[in-house]
Specification:
Elements: H1 2-26, H2 30-53, H3 66-88, E1 96-101, H4 103-108, E2 114-118, E3 126-134, E4 139-144, H5 149-155, E5 165-170, E6 181-187, H6 191-203, E7 207-214, H7 223-228, E8 232-237, E9 244-245, H8 248-257, E10 264-268, H9 271-283, E11 288-291, E12 307-310, E13 313-316, H10 317-320, E14 323-325, H11 331-338, H12 342-361
Parallel strand pairs: 6-7, 6-10, 7-8, 8-9, 10-11
Antiparallel strand pairs: 1-4, 2-3, 2-5, 3-4, 11-14, 12-13
Helix pairs in contact: 1-2, 1-3, 5-12
The chain binds FE2/S2 (inorganic) cluster.
Length: 363
């Protein structure tokens, strides 16, 4: 009986800590995450107290069999973690990679182009950049991060499942020939887009410095692939846990000040990163291309959702872009437009998480 209770307590601790820790990292509802996390830690600390001091807290007496108890707790923690993973599918905080069969798209895809997909009939259409295309197997790869309801739903698809619809390749390919020495800046998930662009630039004979920025070492992605796609790879982390300590713009400026002469810069990633990269390159008079990611719906120039202003003219990112002269883009306008649906997105994500929770609880 004691062994069963020990194991059950371990399961409880592992379950709550897993859900709390993961939710804390991957969703905005920090209060819920903290509650789960605290409950798990409470369970663990009670055990520690019980085992190592001999005092009875909640459940067990201490005894010579404490190593056996520890093993049971560990097994319980493992079981609880696995249950949390299976039920909620929330433990992966790294960006996910999805490969899908699309021979016609793979045959035509070029660096910088994207696809638009819908997971189900009622779902929103989301644009995702083509990370790589395998013409032999007729597949394309996209990399996405679970930040909203649609990407969470996409993450739940299993091998063999189908997307509801899928269109591409869309947008104009990135121009890659004849620059000389270039810097390609990738911010976070933007590295998944910077990778094929850097690769194409490199294959076209340019000398490429690929500068990839991440919040912290644990979420560095595609390092090996990026290393093979450029002349020099520079990894940066905001917290200094790996590579250069600071933002990609800091590393770019460091290289420029050390005497490197860049003929062109490509900035790909969050709007703020691209905005500040352009501010910097304007100061050094380096032509800069940015890959714009405004809200998109149809992807064919009909709906106007991806409208932005470039050099005082209205452009549509889906058909005129996604690449534009960064020094001409009105970033403040795009940032404001992209924030328009934030409340709806937050609600959709919370509804999706509720459905996951409800489904799990109802078995
Ligand atoms: Fe509709 Fe570009 S997505 S016009």
């Amino acid at each position: 009986m004691k062994a069963v209770r020990t194991f059950a307590y371990g399961v409880m601790a592992g379950f709550f800590v897993s859900i709390g820790g993961t939710a804390f990292l991957s969703i905005e509802n920090r209060v819920v995450a903290a509650l789960f996390f605290t409950t798990g830690l409470f369970a663990i600390s009670n055990y520690g107290f019980n085992l190592f001091t001999g005092k009875v807290c909640y459940l067990l007496d201490n005894g010579p069999g404490y190593l056996w108890d520890l093993a049971l707790i560990w097994l319980g923690n493992l079981g609880g973690t696995l249950i949390a993973t299976a039920l909620l599918g929330l433990t992966r905080v790294h960006p996910a990679l999805a490969e899908t069969a699309a021979p016609l798209v793979a045959a035509k895809a070029k660096a910088g182009q994207f696809i638009i997909l819908r997971v189900d009939a009622d779902g929103e259409r989301i644009p995702l950049t083509i990370s790589s295309a395998d013409t032999e197997n007729g597949t394309i790869t996209v990399i996405f991060q679970k930040v909203g309801a649609t990407t969470m739903a996409l993450d739940q698809l299993q091998e063999g499942d189908c997307l509801h619809d899928f269109v591409g390749p869309l947008g104009e390919p990135t121009h890659v020939e004849g620059y000389g020495r270039v810097a390609a800046l990738g911010g976070g998930l933007g590295c998944a887009i910077a990778l094929p662009v850097a690769k194409a630039l490199h294959e076209a004979g340019n000398q490429v410095d690929l500068i990839g920025g991440f919040k912290t070492k644990d979420i560095v992605i595609l390092e090996e692939e990026m290393g093979q796609a450029c002349t020099d790879l520079h990894i940066c982390t905001d917290d200094g846990t790996y590579g250069y300590h600071g933002f990609v713009t800091g590393k770019l400026e460091e290289l420029i000040q050390s005497g490197v002469k860049f003929d062109h810069v490509f900035a790909i990633g969050p709007l703020m990163m691209m905005k500040f990269a352009c501010k910097l390159t304007k100061q050094y008079e380096i032509p800069t291309t940015v890959s714009m990611n405004p809200i998109m719906i149809d992807g064919t120039g009909m709906c106007g959702g991806c409208r932005l202003t470039v050099g005082g003219e209205v452009k549509f990112a889906c058909v005129d872009g996604p690449d534009f002269d960064g020094h001409q883009v009105d970033f403040d306008e795009v940032i404001a437009r992209n924030a328009t649906y934030r409340d709806f997105e937050t609600k959709a994500r919370e509804d999706h998480l509720c459905r996951l929770g409800g489904g799990a609880l109802n078995g």
